[in-house]
Amino acid sequence: MKTVRMTIDVKNPVAKPLGRIDARRVDTTTEADIARQKAADEVEVMLDTAKFARRVRRRLGFSQAEFAERIDVSLDTIRNWEQGKRCPTGAAKALLKVLDKAPEAALAALH
């Protein structure tokens, strides 16, 4: 790969790189566009969380009912997490992370 060296005169605003944004698109973005993107991002986060919760449970080899019993939450809660209807928060989110990284220790502590 070829290395290109550049010097930028900070006193000359024309010499500064413009960056990688489309300034015209940014300027024409409306509040409604931002709200739509925010909603789409939230849906994506919910789906990612659902996949994570399902992956952790499956790696442990538990059914939804077994998993709910082992971590002491309702079966409906597990289903809601895995279907993306609800997101684990606080202690539940931390527990899922620990179960993902150190399942034996987490399960031993819960037993």
Name the helicity range.
55-70%
Structural class: mainly alpha
N-to-C span: 55 Å
Radius of gyration: 23 Å
For this structure, the quaternary state is single chain
The CATH topology label is: 434 Repressor (Amino-terminal Domain)
CATH architecture: Orthogonal Bundle
Total beta-strand segments:
0
Instruction: Please give the domain count.
Output: 1
User: How many helical elements?
Assistant: 6
Parts with pLDDT < 50 across at least 5 consecutive residues: none
Q: What is the CATH class?
A: Mainly Alpha
What is the strand content?
Answer: under 5%
Taken from the alpha-carbon principal axes, the silhouette is elongated
For the sheet with most strands, the description reads:
none
- Residue-averaged pLDDT, rounded? 89
Give structural notes.
The protein has 6 helices and no strands. It is elongated and about 65 Å long. The protein has helices at 23-27, 31-60, 64-71, 75-82, 90-101, 103-110. Helices cover 64% and strands 0% of the residues. The chain has one domain (33-110): lambda repressor-like DNA-binding domains (434 Repressor (Amino-terminal Domain)). Helix 2 (31-60) crosses helix 4, helix 2 (31-60) crosses helix 5 (90-101) and helix 3 (64-71) crosses helix 4. The mean pLDDT is 89. By secondary structure, the protein is an all-alpha fold.
